[in-house]
Design a protein that fits this description.
Blueprint (H helix, E strand, L loop, with lengths): L4 H12 L10 H4 L6 E3 L3 E9 L2 H9 L9 H13 L10 E9 H7 L6 E4 L20 E3 L7 E4 L2 H26 L17 H4 L8 E9 H11 L6 H17 L1 H12 L6 H11 L6 H4 L3 H10 L4
Antiparallel strand pairs: 1-2, 2-3, 3-7, 4-7, 5-6
Helix pairs in contact: 3-4, 4-10, 9-10
Length: 311
């Protein structure tokens, strides 16, 4: 993920600045502030700013002054209680802002989470870079036979290579035609003075969804956890899941007690319906239970057996 010289200079200048503050700061997160964390072939996630820490969650829950209790185990226990019982407001007291570079098709999936403040790079105003996403061959797969929105087994090597060739050829041709219609190079300089260029807001429609865009994405901790619980899940599409995994790394640096509770109760836990809980109770009582009489659909039964390790 090479950065342009001006981008690297901007990052170094931002990291060179410091200011005294009475606000809570987190040394582990400060270590990577402004640094791009590579994702996919040309993408990245970087933390631009944040407000609050685990202490802010505790403070909000207790509505106390200062930093609240100084006993780590008490703070851990309270945060786990809040997570376990789905008390969301204390987590809304913390906020974080990311700068994300991502393929357009990932952005269109990501934007469905309507709980953040977003400002995206404008291709009406600026010229998009000639950067597009090409999956690794092992991530090219057939349509899943059990999940209408997922992928199944990997394509044979020869078929995967043909797909990669098509993706590369199509993207290169699309950008070449985009540049021709603009009649501008990437710096905005006119290429051919003898002809007009098409408006940027129109020329962009020729580009494919694997081209990269960028945005600033700011959200509170509660809604970040909701995003991560869905997008870091094993069933999420790989291309957005890998961004979520990078963001979990920043979460663990920022609010380690909250991240621990998140892994315990949201990532590693399971929510059961009333019927599923009844099935578990019967099994614990030694009763033999089958799907037909369980009150569960075949799909919910399969999911429950997977949770219980009986699949």
């Amino acid at each position: 993920m090479p950065l342009k010289p001006e981008e690297q200079a901007e990052i170094e200048a931002a990291r060179a600045q410091s200011a005294p503050t009475r606000r809570a700061t987190v040394p582990a997160l400060e270590e990577i502030l402004f640094k791009p964390l590579p994702v996919l072939d040309h993408g990245f996630v970087r933390v631009i700013d944040y407000m609050g820490d685990d202490g802010a969650v505790v403070q909000a829950a207790r509505v106390s002054y200062g930093k609240g209790t100084k006993r780590l185990n008490e703070d851990r226990g309270l945060i786990q209680y809040l997570m376990r019982h789905r008390h969301t407001t204390p987590f809304e007291m913390c906020e974080i802002k990311y700068h994300v570079k991502l393929p357009i098709f990932v952005a269109r999936q990501w934007i469905r989470h309507r709980t953040a403040n977003v400002n995206e790079y404008s291709a009406r105003y600026s010229i998009l870079d000639n950067e597009f996403y090409l999956p690794a061959a092992e991530h090219l797969a057939v349509q899943s036979s059990t999940n209408r929105q997922g992928r199944g087994v990997a394509l044979p090597a020869d078929e995967a290579q043909r797909v990669l060739d098509l993706l590369r050829e199509d993207a290169m041709r699309a950008y070449r035609d985009y540049a021709f219609m603009l009649n501008e190079d990437e710096s905005g300089k006119v290429v051919d003075e003898s002809r007009s260029g098409l408006a940027r807001e129109l020329a962009r429609m020729n580009l494919s969804l694997n081209f990269y865009t960028q945005w600033y994405w700011k959200t509170d901790l509660h809604n970040l956890l909701n995003f991560l619980s869905l997008r870091a899940d094993a069933h999420a599409q790989y291309e957005i899941r890998i961004y979520a995994e990078a963001m979990i790394d920043t979460l663990e640096r920022w609010v380690p007690l909250t991240a621990e509770a998140f892994r315990q109760y949201r990532v590693g836990g399971a929510q059961l319906s009333a019927n599923a809980l009844a099935v578990v109770k019967k099994m614990l009582a030694g009763e033999a239970v089958v799907q037909a009489s369980s009150g569960l659909s075949k799909r919910e039964w399969t999911e429950l057996m997977q949770v219980l390790g009986k699949a």
